[in-house]
Amino acid sequence: MLFRLFGTLLRVSMKPQVVFVLGGPGAGKGTQCTKIVETYGYTHLSAGDLLRAERCREGSADGQLIDSYIKEGKIVPVEITINLLRKAMEETMQADEGKCRFLIDGFPRNQDNLQGWAAVMDGKADVRFVLFFNCSNQVCVERCLERGKSSGRTDDNRESLEKRIQTYLQSTTPIIQLYEQQGKLRTVDASRSVEEVFADVKNLLDRES
Ligand code: ADP
Ligand code: C5P
Ligand code: MG
Questions:
Q1: What is the pTM for the complete model shown?
Q2: Domain boundaries in the chain?
Q3: pLDDT tens digits along 107-139
Q4: Which ligand has the shortest distance to the CA of 52?
Q5: Considering every ligand atom, which ligand is closest to the CA of 72?
Q6: DSSP E strands: which ranges in the chain?
Q7: CDD domains recorded for this chain (predicted)?
């Protein structure tokens, strides 16, 4: 009886604690997540990075689809993305039981992402809040074009970026508004220097934890 109670308590305390990280393409989500990981006990999972890795994985059934969606700046069907996220979270927690705090970067990006999360993760993870890096489209595009000089990414070019910005405005902005209405949005002005942005992020995370 006592053992079972202890087991239940342990499982409850081990429920993944999630912070979603949103913002336009190039707003600095990845840069800030890397800095957060250095200072706080979070694991950073970028949906885009996971999709790019899956695209290259030998034997992947979804490689071609992911490739074309990324170039077109479209959002990949959530069945693919949620499986990658779920697997990455499980592997992290299996390797180290104490690692239950996650920054999930670039997700949920549309209604389909949101529904997929609800279907697979509701009750299995707590979404604490959403960290939103607010940055003008113009600055976002400039940063991506600069990154494109060395990133090797197929979507850091003007043609793909126009489509990515359209997708962001049409599909992601309503998700951000939804979280704002729920009182879950924590907005940071991401147009400033990396260190200035991080100073705000630190203040915010210190208040939340
Ligand atoms: P995201 O993950 O949101 O697409 P990244 O973190 O990859 O954005 O940043 C996009 C590009 O902009 C990278 O080349 C990065 O070095 C640069 N960058 C990130 N944050 C800033 C900032 N605050 N000021 C200037 N450049 C930045
Ligand atoms: O976040 P990042 O800029 O790395 O995303 C690159 C691309 O990966 C997106 O433009 C989109 O094609 C794909 N992606 C997706 N679904 C997500 C996150 C990224 O389809 N939730
Ligand atoms: Mg990124």
A1: 0.95
A2: 15-208
A3: 999 999 999 999 999 999 999 999 999 999 999
A4: 2
A5: 2
A6: 17-23, 43-46, 101-105, 126-134, 185-189
A7: ADK
